[in-house]
Design brief:
Elements: E1 2-6, H1 13-21, E2 38-47, E3 63-65, E4 68-77, H2 92-99, E5 104-110, H3 130-149, H4 152-161, H5 166-173, H6 181-191, H7 203-217, E6 220-225, H8 232-242, E7 247-250, H9 253-264, E8 268-269, E9 278-279, H10 287-304, H11 309-320, E10 324-328, E11 346-348, H12 354-361, H13 363-367, E12 369-374, E13 380-381, E14 392-397
Helix pairs in contact: 1-9, 3-7, 5-6, 6-7
Length: 399
């Protein structure tokens, strides 16, 4: 599962990426600073379920802070884009190619209105960020349409002449975009297209199909960056009214990065997604650092409840993609053979069953599945039992 950070240059994409991953990402105030995609590991925030049993988890990957466990997932920051990206303008071709495998998108926009359509700095409030929302939709739709229509007539006639399954063939052709046969079937039925005569479909039909498949395969949350700049909150509210089909989350990527770096060096105690922090080494803070932390506390955390970055990450995976955080554990003992409490957590797609979880743990567990045991209530569950968020299951398998 991969989440992509997208947007035009100079809006804070790389800052948000670095804040989420603490990976080394070049950050500068000019267009196209990101040329090659940055790939890193970000973390989702979930309750530490071991606390329910009076224990604390010992994650094999990820970490625990306070009452929360942070579960890793892959994040990619792609090259910035400008209008005409699907035609190769700017870093368009590379941007779109890097996005192919992304399961969901975080679209970063500049709420302060100080970055124009080319990623250049302009006066605060002089650019309408609503333009960015519309132009990204257009670029993605035209990208999908271009892939769909390339050689369409030849493809359509071949499907008819050779009596191939249209939905299966089309899904195979678009598999690089994460399109499945089920998605194609649903879209064609909803658009009421004639499956027997695809060579008669109009360009408008293909465009509608491209848009529908794009929305399904690249769900998006919009990160409204620079929420602390005067006027940004009003612009955020306006965008939420203008585009009710999207979720907008205000954030300050710069503030989150400052907090996480200060926490990494031991200057403060900070749990991502929280509304406060504690200073641990007052004497080591210089005047500039103290002033910055005071600003973040009063202008970001107290005003908005959090910086917004963790909320965006969690929303992308748990709400857009509806993934589930599931823990393997023994019904009578939470520790593994090394004494580590609930060392593993797996992110499972929506609709996953106990059998799917067994296969996730090990192929042999899936093949020899007998039952699953809910660690909380000790009840047995069959292979078709649907998992729910934060479940803890022991898998019982034969030899």
């Amino acid at each position: 599962m991969l989440v992509g950070i997208v947007g035009k240059p100079n809006v804070g994409k790389s800052t948000l990426f670095k804040a989420a991953t603490l990976a080394e990402a070049e950050i500068a105030n000019y267009p196209f600073v990101t040329i090659k995609p940055n790939e890193g590991v970000a973390y989702l925030k979930v309750p530490d379920v071991a606390r329910e049993f009076g224990k604390t988890s010992n994650p094999r990957s990820g970490y625990v802070l306070g009452n929360f466990r942070f579960v890793p997932f892959k994040l990619i920051d792609v090259a910035g884009l400008v209008p005409g990206a699907h035609e190769g303008k700017g870093m368009g071709n590379q941007f779109l190619d890097d996005l192919r495998q992304a399961d969901a998108l975080i679209h970063v926009i500049d709420l302060s209105g100080s970055t124009n359509e080319r990623g250049e700095t302009v006066a605060i409030g002089s650019y309408d960020p609503a333009e960015d929302v519309m132009f990204l939709e257009t670029e993605l739709d035209m990208w999908y349409l271009g892939i769909l229509t390339k050689g369409w007539q030849k493809f359509a006639r071949m499907v008819v002449q050779e009596k191939q399954d249209l939905c299966l063939s089309l899904a195979s052709q678009l598999s690089g975009l994460q399109v499945t046969e089920e998605m194609v079937i649903t879209a064609i039925e909803k658009l009421q297209l004639d499956k027997e005569k695809p060579h008669h479909w109009r360009e408008e039909d293909l465009k509608k199909l491209a848009v529908m498949l794009r929305k399904k395969t690249k769900p998006m949350v919009i990160a409204g960056n620079k929420i602390d700049v005067p006027g940004s909150l009003e612009r955020l509210k306006s965008l939420q009214k203008k585009f009710p089909h999207y979720t907008f989350i205000g954030c300050s990527a710069e503030s989150e990065l400052a907090l996480r770096e200060a926490a990494k060096t031991g200057l403060i105690d900070y749990v991502p997604g929280s509304n406060n922090f504690s200073i641990l080494k007052e004497q080591q803070l210089n005047v500039r650092q103290r002033k910055a932390l005071d600003f973040i506390q009063s202008n970001i955390l107290e005003s908005f409840g959090q910086t917004g970055v963790q909320k965006i990450l969690d929303f992308a995976v748990f709400e857009l993609l509806q993934y589930l955080a599931i823990f393997p554990g023994g019904a009578n003992k939470l520790e593994d053979k090394n004494g580590h409490v609930l060392p593993d957590c797996f992110l499972m797609p929506p609709g996953s069953t106990a059998l799917d979880f067994a296969y996730k743990l090990h192929t042999d567990f899936g093949k020899n599945f007998i039952r699953a045991i809910d660690v909380r209530n000790k009840r047995a569950a069959g292979k078709d039992h649907l998992l729910k968020q934060l479940d803890i299951f022991e898998i019982v398998a034969g030899k």
